[in-house]
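Weekly puzzle thread! Below is a chain. First person to post its structure in token form gets bragging rights.
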Amino acid sequence: MSSSLRRAWFLRSRTAGGSSNPSLRLDLHVLPGGILQLPPPRGDNPSRFLLNSANEYLVGPAFAYFPRGGFLHQSKNLCERPRDWMRSSLWCGMEAGSGMIYPELCLDGVVHSRLGGNMVEPSQAGSGDPKESELQRYIRTEIPQVGVEVVGDGDAALDSGGRKIRLRRDPGSADRVRCPTGSAVWTPNFAADDHLKALFPSGILHAVSPYFDDPDCESELTSCYRRSLELAVPGSGVSSSEGGIRIASPLLGCGVKDIQPEISAACLLRGMGEFVRDGSEGSHPLITVEVVLQLEDDVAAVEHEVSRAADGGSLTFTAVKL
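Winning reply:
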């Protein structure tokens, strides 16, 4: 048993009672150094996905710094070049501060820098484009730009109470969206390091969580978790594992998107409930969601949400003796 494991539960559909094998398990880890400190999965044919909190364009962090909660007077999802004030050469040695997040401090930055593979030449000879990582090339060539509708404009976007809200994305780059908010897509793990390759042998699930002030924040975040579970099951076209499946995940949205841990935990449990309720009970191997926290203080928040979900929700929880 991993020394980082704090709590674990088996989850069943409440309608199935105790008669069925559990289809889901929730493990709660605390690793101050982050999700890459997990031990590799064991077994002859190990399966583990990494659930990454991405942006709609799947480009990774494009800025030297990014404000927690985003730019509050602009669209939530940006697709543009870094600005002069963000260039570290102009900061004269000053730190960005707690309100700013460096790429290496968010999981998406770690994914692109450490799991993105080698730098390769652009696929079109003579194009003059800079080198790109193997992950970037896969995204560019294998995951289409789906395009999305932009409703309203910066002056006309209002919530149900008539208050002005930020648009979900820049109108000028809506056609470049590859994974809309609330969705998830899969890519291989291209890590050149053997240990990192073995850590997530099943690849990476990239889910786009909403920002904290999105009017549909909780429903879209729930959708992120549910869609990621759907991608992980055999028969989805992604997973080939016939044994137990693992998904290593942070609490989505609790970094750049500035969602509170208890809200993300509640959406995770709701997404797991929807996944079971949609007819998956007993139709797939056991899926273990390994939630990795960096702070001991967040354990209580997740435990509280488990207690709430168990009190009349669609799932029953059976604590695992550690």
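Puzzle host: Confirmed. Bonus trivia for everyone else. The two ends are 8 Å apart (CA to CA).
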